[in-house]
Amino acid sequence: MKFKLSILALLILTSCMVINHKKYVINLDKVGDKLRPIRTDGYYYQEREEMTFPYYKNSYGGFSKDSTKPYLQKQIRPLTLHKDGTLLTFGFSTGFQENYVFDYSANCGLFDLNSIDNAKKHFECDIRHYKDRFPIWGKGVFKTEKNEIIIQYYINWIGAYHLVEKKGVILNGTTFVLKKLFDYKLNESKDINELYKFQHFDIKPDSTNYIIEHKRKFKNKV
Length: 222
What we know:
Blueprint: H1 2-16, E1 18-19, E2 32-35, E3 42-52, E4 55-57, E5 63-65, E6 71-81, E7 86-89, E8 93-94, H2 104-108, H3 116-128, E9 139-145, E10 148-157, E11 160-172, E12 175-183, E13 188-200, H4 210-213
Parallel strand pairs: 1-11, 2-9
Antiparallel strand pairs: 3-6, 3-13, 4-5, 6-7, 6-8, 7-9, 9-10, 10-11, 11-12, 12-13
């Protein structure tokens, strides 16, 4: 009965989704790495740094930030590319226990450490325990041609889904840099500089998404 209810909930969710910019999605016959092979047996990550504050457990049993101890936090922004042309995006990962619902120490033997390597370990722990909750949010497609890579994915904006596109240059089979971002909701383009490096990893979550499952709804022929 629980399984049937979850299927019903998913059907209700997808029937209510507002998905914009369908006609701008890459021609789905041309997605993937067919035209310029790059590694897909792992994940890619961008290294970042952000000035922030540590969390501490407050007297109410929750967590607060200590604004007296600023520090430069090392982060990664990961994504996975898949042979079928699909991709998954994720939020920023750090080397800290910032998700207090999930215990990284108990589940993966990880402890807090401000390093890129530890951020990667935390992300890999997330991948091992990945649960797919959204049919299109954070998911998309990509294609490569000559030395160019284009990635597209959907973001959620107050219950509606809008397309984001990034274009860049493939440096080699394990490295690319994204140079341009186009936000279809805002109809705005801007320059970016996001260098992504490859990390081999044997476990990858299922990347099946609404776009691939409903190709006829995405009409771009270019």
